[in-house]
Automatic annotation (TrEMBL):
Keyword Flavoprotein found: no
Bias (Low complexity) ranges: 11-29
Protein's cellular compartments: Cytoplasm, Cytoskeleton, Flagellum axoneme
Organism: Papilio xuthus
Name listed for the protein in its UniProt record: Dynein regulatory complex protein 10
Keyword Glycoprotein in annotation: no
């Protein structure tokens, strides 16, 4: 593993392969540079040709730096995407990556000689970040950089990343630096000279505008002084108007006092007239009281009779209402109970229907597969049972045949013995 990593780190194809997998943004901006053919322009000077070659080389180096920076930023995320790496990388490179991951996560258990110094520091209690870094991470970056298929994954992770992270800020600064470098290298001497001339023109116009601003500032100051003078004049006018207002207030106070005295005199005369009217109204009040008392007696009797009728009607109505309320309360309780039961049953039914629908999606194919397996299994068991049954039947029949043969042999032997015994008896006679 050490010899392989050293060989890959010193591989001369690193620049060419990494330049092929540059960032999409830098590749799009350098398409025109790559499409140019410098051999066609025979009239170009060697210095210009060398400058263009150096510009292309610097652009490729910057593209490679941007690509490797993106890969380094996305490395923690790519480490977690084991399926993606396994589908793109080869088996040998996956084994190398897994070994490097193990060494990075637990340097104490690494077999690499490069971690022996860190091993001593870790045993001494130093768990800083430098003792968790592994030199073979360079090999990890080289392996991932050698696969162009990882480029879309890295670009997607960069697009989804937060711009507040320091890594992405550095990447944006590097891409801006590359754009400025390309723009500066594409600029000719004539363009640079024209830009300087434009700058000088802008400086001259800036001086003219500064003078105009100073002139306008002076005019503004003069106008402000004139405005202050007008404000002072208006303040004097306001003071004179306030004095006139005070004199008018005093005059109105005198007039108001006169009107108050006249109104008091008229009020005394009106009070006397009201006293006379009050005596007359008292007499009318006494007469109306007598009439009122007589009417009140009559009305009280009528009211008593009406109250008795009203009490009777209200009592009867109240009893009917109480009976109605009791019956309706019982019916409402029953209705609420039935409604709750109905809603609960409907909710359970809906949940069961949803569960059955979800289970049907998952279990109908499984049940069909199990049914086929069960059918096949039962068919095999039936065939096996029939074979065993046929074997038993055949064995039983064969046993009976053997038993019959044995009995026949025994009968033959007995017959022979009996015949032999009879022959002996006949010989003796």
């Amino acid at each position: 593993m050490e010899s392989h990593s050293a060989g890959t780190l010193l591989s001369p194809s690193t620049f060419s392969e990494s330049s092929k997998t540059g960032s999409s943004k830098s590749a799009d901006s350098t398409t025109k540079d790559k499409d140019q053919d410098f051999t066609k322009d025979n009239a170009a000077s060697p210095i210009d040709l060398e400058c263009k070659i150096q510009a292309e080389r610097i652009t490729k180096i910057l593209d490679e730096s941007i690509n490797k920076t993106k890969l380094a930023i996305c490395l923690p995320g790519l480490v977690k995407e084991y399926r993606t790496l396994n589908s793109i990388l080869s088996n040998q490179h996956m084994d190398d990556l897994l070994l490097i991951f193990d060494q990075y996560d637990s340097p104490l258990f690494s077999t690499s000689l490069l971690n022996m110094g860190a091993f001593e520091d870790l045993k001494a209690g130093d768990v800083s970040l430098k003792n968790r870094l592994n030199p073979e991470l360079g090999l990890l970056l080289y392996i991932m950089n050698s696969y162009p298929a990882l480029k879309p994954v890295v670009e997607e992770m960069i697009d989804e990343g937060k711009p507040e992270t320091p890594g992405l800020k550095y990447l944006l600064a590097l891409e801006n630096f590359r754009g400025l470098m390309v723009k500066q290298m594409e600029m000719t001497a004539a363009e640079e000279l024209s830009m300087k001339l434009k700058t000088r023109k802008l400086e001259a116009s800036n001086i003219k505008l500064t003078k105009k601003i100073e002139e306008h500032t002076k005019t503004l100051k003069e106008e402000s002084e004139n405005f202050e003078e007008t404000m002072k004049h208006k303040a004097e006018v306001i003071a004179s108007l306030e004095a006139e207002l005070a004199t008018q207030n005093r005059e109105t106070a005198v007039k108001l006092q006169k009107k108050v005295l006249d109104s008091e005199r008229q009020m005394v005369l009106a009070t006397r007239a009201h006293l006379v009217k009050n005596e007359m109204l008292k007499e009318e009040e006494a007469e109306s009281r007598e009439v009122y008392e007589n009417l009140l007696k009559v009305h009280l009797l009528e009211e008593k009779n009406l109250r008795a009728r009203r009490l009777k009607v209200e009592t009867q109505l109240l009893s009917w209402l109480q009976k109605y309320d009791v019956e309706m309360a019982d019916k409402q309780v029953e209705l609420d109970e039935f409604t709750e039961k109905y809603e609960e049953e409907m909710r359970k039914c809906k949940e069961l229907e949803d569960q059955i629908a979800e289970q049907d999606k998952e279990y109908i194919p499984l049940m069909a597969e199990r049914e086929a397996e069960y059918h096949e299994e039962m068919t095999q068991k039936m065939q096996k049972f029939l074979q065993e049954h046929a074997a038993r039947v055949i064995q039983n029949a064969w046993r009976e045949v053997l038993a019959n043969r044995a009995e026949k042999k025994k009968l033959k032997k007995l017959l022979k013995k009996m015949q032999a015994a009879e022959e002996k008896k006949g010989g003796k006679k």
